[in-house]
Amino acid sequence: MALKFGADVSTAQTDYGTVLLDQRAGEYWELNPTGTLVVKTLMAGGDEADAVAALVEEFDIDLDQASRDVDTLVRQLRTSGLAE
What we know:
This protein is an alpha+beta fold. It is about 45% helix and about 20% strand. The chain is built from three helices and three strands; from the N terminus they run E-E-E-H-H-H. Strands 1-2-3 form a three-stranded antiparallel beta sheet. The radius of gyration is 12 Å and the shape is globular.
């Protein structure tokens, strides 16, 4: 399922990944390069399987670990209210 940030979430690319600002709570989240790749894939319309495949292709990570990482990140972003 594609990912979309809420209207109160600002993003900025850095040399180390992506920073998210939750303007409602005044809290920052920092995504490392793997998290950034997952978010970019999902925001471009890809699904979680596409994000897993992107991680496996780009980084030295096995399929099971990539799947767990994608699931965890997506769940955290949605649970925190940052993403829909």
